Amino acid sequence: MVYPVILSGGSGTRLWPISRKHYPKQFLKLTSNYTMLQETALRLKGFNSPIAVCNESHRFILAEQLLEIGKKPSALILEPVARNTAPAIALAAFQAQKMNDDAILVVLAADHVISDEDAFQHAVELAVAEAEKGSLVTFGVVPDKPETGFGYIQATQKEGVSEIKRFVEKPDYDTAASYVASGDYFWNSGMFVFKASSFLKELKEHNSDMFDAVNASLDSADSDLDFIRVKKDDFAKSPSDSIDYAIMEKTSNGVVLPINVGWSDVGSFSALWEVLDKDENGNVGLGDVKHIDSKNCLVQSENQFVATIGVEDIVVVGTKDSVLVTKRDRVQDVKAVVSHLEATGRTEHLLHREVHRPWGKYDSIDNGNRYQVKRITVKPGASLSKQMHHHRAEHWIVVSGTAIVEINDKERLLCENQSIYIPLGATHRLTNPGKVPLELIEVQSGSYLGEDDIVRFKDEYGRS
């Protein structure tokens, strides 16, 4: 009866530059050899495959990462517009009821860290038993310090399943300290367990407009490959609200279960520093990093050597196209950098230099006036769309693997060290017929080199 629900709608702006709008933190390997999404999917054992809810631009990344760990979703629902957590959970609840009238949902964010997974599994089992009685269970994290970045839940008792006295917004430091000292306040984790039917009953009672809009959007949904594509016009009519505001603060059936499981939302670089292993001086080094006479620093480098000398409490994060340097107590202000990039029309907050696509990936390794160079990797058996460009011509040089290149309906087989020219305006397609990845260099030249200069005639992935 139990279906984990993974909500994967966040953008992770406070972890820029490693987190980008189109490749946010839930798809990154931050604390282990698995991505945060994969960690979340692997966290619960003995239940059904998860129901995943994500936005359209992340659909192939999410599906591929779950497939890598053998966790093909029971359903993968695409949100056409962002409407906060309550409508997203409603989508999962309606879908779960189609699969099982008695479905119980374990609602998880895709970007949380839990270090004691056995304790969390036990807590979920307790919560499931409570949910069978009709309760809407939320997990309250036992706080280990005053934290002004989280909301709080006040419980009527300090241990075990408890009635909820009230929800509290993010407090100032002194108020947070008093909450921690009292012992009956818990961090609001944003994780829940309840019957799908119980949730939908409460939603219909407290927010009928949301209930009707989400229900209509799923009733008229289309299937697209493995995705459920809900109707945008119907879903957009739903109010945008969190589950706390829409239901939990209004219901008389809400309860809180305190947990102490090493939880973190990894919402900033200071939070990431706290959960990672450190050297004897409190330093974290990820990538090619050397610390000399430095203390309590987090340094991450994607593609170059970074050294620190005689510094304390700083964060340095380098990617292929950006570098962030900040004091550890100012990491919350990273959002201001993202706002600047957005306001000035730049793209470093949207995409990494290396961009993942359903057929593989590309890395923009050089560009200048009227030219751009990319390194392209195509998965075995995958094809790019059949397409045409109005403003650019392309040269392809095969580095490794084998390529089938179609130009104006004529095919040619290319092997290593062979190349081909695609004239401006030619209809073309690239396919990897082999058993190993195809690596090639693409040189674009022309008056406009934007990614939107693509006219697609045929695409296996449903892109227009």
Could you characterize the architecture of this molecule?
With 464 residues, the protein is of the alpha/beta class. 23% of the residues lie in helices and 34% in strands. The chain has 11 helices and 30 strands. The chain has a 6-stranded antiparallel beta sheet, with no helix packed on it. A hairpin with a 4-residue loop joins β18 (314-318) and β19 (323-327). The longest helix is centred in the N-terminal third of the chain and has 15 residues, at 85-99. It is globular and about 70 Å long. The model has no long low-confidence stretch (mean pLDDT 94).
Give the strand tally.
30
Give the helix proportion (percent range): 10-25%
Compute the separation of the termini in Å.
Answer: 38 Å
Low-confidence stretches: none
Number of helices: 11
Overall geometry comes to globular
Helix/strand/pairing category = alpha/beta
* Main sheet summary: 6 strands, antiparallel
Q: Which radius of gyration do the C-alpha atoms yield?
A: 24 Å
| Overall residue-averaged pLDDT value | 94
Strand arrangement in the largest pleated sheet: 20-21-22-29-24-27
What is the strand content?
25-35%
Please give the structural blueprint.
Elements: E1 2-8, H1 36-43, E2 51-55, H2 59-68, E3 75-79, H3 85-99, E4 104-109, E5 113-114, H4 117-131, E6 136-141, E7 152-155, E8 162-168, H5 173-182, E9 185-195, H6 196-206, H7 208-219, E10 222-224, E11 227-229, H8 232-235, H9 243-248, E12 254-259, E13 263-264, H10 269-275, E14 284-286, E15 289-292, E16 298-301, E17 306-309, E18 314-318, E19 323-327, H11 334-343, E20 354-357, E21 360-368, E22 371-378, E23 386-388, E24 392-400, E25 403-407, E26 410-414, E27 419-422, E28 428-431, E29 438-446, E30 455-458
Parallel strand pairs: 1-2, 1-4, 2-3, 3-11, 6-12, 14-16, 15-17, 16-18
Antiparallel strand pairs: 4-9, 5-13, 6-9, 7-8, 7-9, 8-12, 10-11, 18-19, 20-21, 21-22, 22-29, 23-30, 24-27, 24-29, 25-26, 25-28
Helix pairs in contact: 3-6, 3-7, 6-7
